[in-house]
Amino acid sequence: MPTKSLSLKSTQLIFQLHHPTPIFSSTIHNSQFTMPIPHHLIFLSLLLLLLSSCPEPAFSAHCTTTTSTKSFHKCTSLPTQQASLAWTFHPRNATLDLAFFGSFISPSGWVGWGINPTSAEMTGTRALIAFPDPNSGQIVLLPFVLDPTVKLQKAPLLSQPIDDIHLLSSSATLYGGKLATVHNGAQLQIYVTLKLTPNKTRIHFVWNRGLYVQGYSPTIHPTTENDLSSIATIDVLSGSAASQHGNIGTLKTAHGIINAIAWGILLPGGAVIARYLRHVQALGPSWFYAHAGIQLSAFFLGTVGFGIGIRLGELSPGVVYGLHRKLGFTAFCLAALQTLALLFRPRTTNKFRKYWKSYHHFVGYACVVIGVVNVFQGFEAMGLGRSYEKLSYCLCLSTLIGACIALEVNSWVIFCRKSKEDKMRREGLIGGSEKESGTYRLN
Description:
The protein contains 7 helices and 12 strands.
């Protein structure tokens, strides 16, 4: 939970908080075989550079139902930060006794836990944050309401009573008792007693930890995937975790596979066909249909993967991959422009044809490069930076780049031989009619 800071008029803070309060239940010249050199060389160089971009899952703690002062009926390991929960629910009076187990990541840091009454996200969470008192060094526990302004980080987050929950009691202790000290890895326990709304046992739990506290102001927590995924919905009556987004893993896998094939393999492959096969006379117009077919397939397949990515963003409101998302939108928009450009392709006799060709080349190559880079970003986002899946893709991309190098060398050999023959023919050193190069161009 990103938190910025808090200021208090008094430094006399209460270790035990008692607030009668309702439960918080809880993101493309034919003649003389001429070749447009500069931008193709740029494209090849950029592809070569991509190979150099070829970087940790979260582990949960084992939960326990017993602490030094109390025993609980149920417990669960939370999915991130080695945190866990233990609780006892009393159905007769809808009371919940609960203990949250977390750990510090800095001697001057903070650990927070809370409940969101409406949705599984940070915004709207009613939180209790524990940290060492800057004056006495003792652990203090303060209440916060994480409203939408918290993400803006424009002002300190002020501690304030949680008036819309039934928080009967709360306290925080370090594991190890009074002699325990705050250090990196120190374990903290937050105890609360809550009065739940009758028949409402499904709760959205939110937790996190930060590096620093300025005065009595907890600062923003790290923004890794692990830290942005610290949300869980649990039914305290049955003890089961909610499975409302249980298909996220399947969607992530589908998103990764589809986009790697579309943007990372088909799109570069279609560009290679247009670059090297259009000069082969024996193929006639076949190269064009192959190029267009592959690129359109890549675009439509990539659209499916793009849509899945949007859906994943909706299902994970707290998880944001900024660079990956921006590159994805950019690649999709460029691919859409390329597809629409086919409808406005001028004839070869049209004076605007050369401008269209320049546009088509540069936008197409930009789309290819951005798409491939984003595939690597996707591997990092999925925690597969050092995986066999990424290695397999690198091998596929290396093979494609190797083919490009071989074809580029072959093209230059043919081009140089053709230029030398034309020069000798013009000087009369060799005979023969001046025929066209034999390059087939599609109008």
